[in-house]
Amino acid sequence: MKYFFLLLLCTFIPKNVGAQIYEVGVFAGGSNFIGDVGATDYIAPNQAAFGFLAKWNRSARHSFRASVIFSDLKGIDRDSDDPRRKERDYEFDTSIIEISAGMEFTFFDFDLHSIDTKGTPYLYSGITFTNHDNYYFLTNGDYISENTNSWALGIPMALGYKTRIANQFVLAGEIGARYTFSDELDGSVPDSKDREALSFGNTNNNDWYMFSGITLTYTFGRRPCYCNF
């Protein structure tokens, strides 16, 4: 019975008095692409990335998180260490909008109402939807628009470190990989089935891209009820 009442307390108090901590803020950094065109370095930002994010801190160890990030993905075969790509000399550049939602886990308690809170590493994962324009390559290397766009489903995997820099501000730096269930982001696989013959590269490996940067968030909300039982 004691645990039943504690459960009710944790369930209803946040709804009635807004006793959770929220964060809203911005992301700024860079992106790089890993696929069938361009270099395959894991952390080598070559395009700017910016966006917005929001968090709902459900406990001192985990938060629900959502974000929208805007960037370009660019690949240049001349920048690759692979001599075959250098000889091929393809190049692509496409704009993306990424919508992501998931959960952030901290390595240590991160209670923003505690004066002892300084900083902690964290992990983030969830699901992404990435909107991109569709292109394809002609055999001579020309990069041609299909005049359509697609959504690529993906999985984000980010590692970061965050710290409180003022009573209501949190600064974080993170590096995040996005594995997508698509091989179309770089134009190596045309979206149209009529152009399947123009596909190239390793069609068994899907596209990846990376975000590296910092976030600055503003926190608000009353002292949370983190019930442990």
UniProtKB/TrEMBL annotation:
Source organism of this protein record: Winogradskyella psychrotolerans RS-3
Pfam family, one: DUF6089
Top-level taxon of the source organism: Bacteria
Name the record gives this protein: DUF6089 domain-containing protein
Domain DUF6089: 4-228
